[in-house]
Design brief:
- This protein is of the alpha/beta class.
- The protein has 2 domains: 5-17 and 51-250, Type I PLP-dependent aspartate aminotransferase-like (Major domain) (Aspartate Aminotransferase, domain 2, 3-Layer(aba) Sandwich), CATH 3.40.640; 253-343, Aspartate Aminotransferase, domain 1 (Alpha-Beta Complex), CATH 3.90.1150.
- It is 36% helix and 16% strand.
- The chain has 13 helices and 11 strands.
- It has a 7-stranded mixed beta sheet with strand order 1-7-6-5-4-2-3, with helices on both faces.
- β2 (95-100), α6 and β3 (116-121) form a beta-alpha-beta unit.
- α5 (78-88) crosses α6 (105-112) and α11 runs parallel beside α13.
- The model has no long low-confidence stretch (mean pLDDT 97).
- The protein binds pyridoxal-5'-phosphate.
């Protein structure tokens, strides 16, 4: 399938002249800044942050092996999800493909933007159904959202199937790799340049332990990144986030240590869960959470709350009847969970 980015972009976005910030208009060195109506008195935070997050992108580019012009940074992954929909989907006309069950924000963003959603049920082992996906898209389908490892099921989607869809789908394929650090794979970043229609989402919210700072990473062709840059709010990544994330990225060993501990703990929790009689299925996980099917999930959920433990009730979600999603905690937290579940 021939991929034509220009045909996918909404006309208003193509014609848009982006906002030009004071920091864009003047790029040289100066000592007196009277161009942005800032307060001149140094509060530490009186200046606008770098709208292009150059230092951050340089560091992320080094870690991920990606050119800086192929990186877009957002206020969490939520922002690129929303911007992708707004850049490519004409409200009331275009549609997006969203497998179910998956991360809820794709649907929320599409609905906010009055973009039609075509849902595709995942298979019973939560993998993508390629034939059904191909039957479901039409001339107005712009985006296909794939989450791998998938939330809430925890499994990676089959790599070859995703690749097949990347080749055949005429729109943009978004592979959300929020949990990729907890797998044994590098995901799609190493082959980013093989697919002009590939957008990869990753985040600092999970493995890196920085959910509060809101930093989502998006990797794509430089042409797609340019489209997102054109429509983003100019200062979408605040200065404190840029500063702290830059420092954290220097401490990759700490992140790797947490990830190794969480993976060990995941194995412990899995092994303990299968021993509990009420637990009917422990779905294999490559993420930092485990989906289980358990008798009377809703009442189990309530009982855990009375013990001060909160997990995620997914029992109303497609293919997830009687399912709870349990995040891996500290070793102490995991032991408390297992002991309370065993005593129910
Ligand atoms: C947690 C999660 C994210 C992270 O979102 P942020 O906005 O970056 O915090 C993205 N995608 C999926 C599937 C997630 O589960």
């Amino acid at each position: 399938m021939k991929f034509d980015l220009d045909k996918l972009i909404r006309d208003n976005v193509k014609q848009l002249k982006p906002y030009s910030s004071a920091r864009d208009d003047f790029k040289g060195d100066a000592s007196v800044f009277l161009d942005a109506n800032e307060n001149p008195f140094p509060t530490e935070y009186n200046r606008y942050p770098d709208p292009h997050q150059k230092k951050l992108k340089k560091k992320i580019g080094e870690i991920k092996g990606v050119e800086t012009n192929q990186i877009f940074l957002g206020n969490g992954s939520d922002e690129p999800i929303d911007l992708l929909i707004r850049a490519f989907c004409e409200p009331g006309r275009d549609n997006v493909l969203i497998p179910q069950p998956t991360y809820g924000m794709y649907t929320v963003s599409a609905e906010v933007n009055a973009v039609t959603i075509k849902t595709i049920p995942l298979t019973h082992d939560f993998d993508i159904d390629v034939d059904l996906t191909k039957k479901t898209w039409d001339v107005h389908t712009k985006l296909l959202f794939l989450c791998s490892p998938n939330n809430p099921s925890g499994n990676l989607l089959d790599f070859d199937k995703v690749q097949m869809l990347l080749i055949e789908f005429p729109g943009i394929v978004i592979v959300d790799e929020a949990y990729i650090d907890f797998t044994n794979y590098d995901g799609f970043v190493p082959i980013l340049n093989s697919f002009p229609n590939l957008v990869i989402l990753q985040t600092l919210s999970k493995a890196w332990g920085l959910a509060s700072l809101r930093l989502g990473m998006c990797f794509a062709s430089k042409e797609i990144v340019a489209v997102l840059n054109k429509i983003k709010p100019p200062y979408n990544i605040n200065g404190i986030t840029q500063q702290i994330v830059l420092k954290s990225l220097e401490e990759i060993e700490q992140k790797n240590k947490w990830v190794a501990e969480i993976i060990d703990a995941r194995e412990f929790v899995e092994n303990e869960l299968v021993k509990i009689p009420a637990v009917q299925i422990v779905y294999p996980s490559q993420a930092n959470f485990i989906l289980i099917k358990i008798a009377n999930a809703k009442s189990v959920y309530q009982s855990l709350i009375t013990k001060g433990i909160v997990v995620r009730d997914r029992s109303n979600v497609l293919l997830c009847g009687d399912c709870l999603r349990i995040t891996i905690g500290t070793p102490e937290e995991n032991k408390i969970l297992i002991s309370e579940l065993s005593n129910l």
